[in-house]
Amino acid sequence: MSNALQQRAVELGDVPPARSRHAGKRSAVTLPGALVVTGTATGDVVAYDRTTLDERWRERRDTEMTSVVAAEPFGDGVVIGERSAEGTLRCYDQKTGELRWQYATARDLGAPQKSSRFFLPFVAALETAGDRLYVASRRYERDGDHRSFTSAVYAFDETGDVVWTHETDASPISLDVEERRLAVAYNRCPGTHQHGVVVLDAATGTVRYEWDPGTDGQRRVGDVSLVSDGVIVASHGDYCGYRLHDGGAEQWCVDLGTPAAIGDETVYAYPNHVHATADAAVFVTGNTYSRDGRETASLHPREHTAFGYTPDGECVWTASAGGFASELGVGGNHVAVPGAQHFRTRDAAVHGLRIFSTETGLEATFETDGIVTAVALDGESFVAVEEPVVYHDEGEKRGTYRLVSGASRREARAHRDHL
């Protein structure tokens, strides 16, 4: 990858390095106006000047087992979501950092079953539209081989009051809002709720329609993206991508990480992310898994790949996404994909960030020593969180915990053309 574009960085403190396998999100970043707001693995929220990265305000947290996993501008404030014993939402004034309101989702989901990271209530997604904030939060339990979830999707007003709540026993993973529709993706459905996609009325929370890939098992949907006439879906159930008409009828289905025979094994890769515009849709796949178990020496030919599709379902470009991506940064017709561990090969060369045009593919790449785990993107610049990593079979610490700010896409395109 090229690393020629100018970048700025600021250290975020000391955290235990990530390991070979992914342990879930523990950082977040967003771009409200002239600021960069970062949520950290220790629960702190820090606002920096967007141009200089000088610190503007900070709230420190002394609570153990708290990390900030989601962040989103909301009016003239900024909202963060925690993975913590309370699964708290906090809304801050952008200029001053004053705490305006907070809400503990654990009051609805219940207390964690264990004092362990994966059992903590988790704010999985935030989206905003006008004067509404939409939130998905979940809590996980396990009893032997039995897994269960308690979850809620909320609409909040600007004062922090709950407008409506939609509760299920499935695991929400992402949200998207457009006009009067709110789409919810559920990646695991072990209970009575058996629909991977639910489209709600954004104003009232009532169900407009539901859709599911119709596959066996708990895995259902990895991500959703709304378009004016329907929904684009990354399906965990059958490893495909779908375009649905508004109402749930299927317009097309494309193979993404579907099972492939490699030697005497059959392997697959989950489509984890999708972002769609009126003119294109980008899907991103994740890690390779074997049908015979989690361990495999094989690699799926379409793992860690970004795909660009037309509204008619034609694939017009593909490109490597590097390693595992925990999220996408989106800005109009551009997508930023953070590259974290490739735990099968543990290749540090994949660490970094890739920026794609939804219509034409790769535009720029940015190397990091550590793994990139959170990203935000708009018309001017990108910001990303780099975390240190130590692979179990190597023992070398790579990278530091820091915020990285990079060039505008115009500069990125100029750099690409120069190459």
From TrEMBL:
Gene3D superfamilies on file: YVTN repeat-like/Quinoprotein amine dehydrogenase
Residue segments, region Disordered: 1-26
Residue ranges constituting the Pyrrolo-quinoline quinone repeat domain according to the UniProt record: 27-120, 152-255
A Pfam family assignment: PQQ_2
Domain of life per record: Archaea
Cross-referenced SUPFAM superfamilies: Quinoprotein alcohol dehydrogenase-like
Protein name from the UniProt record: PQQ-like domain-containing protein
Organism: Halobellus clavatus
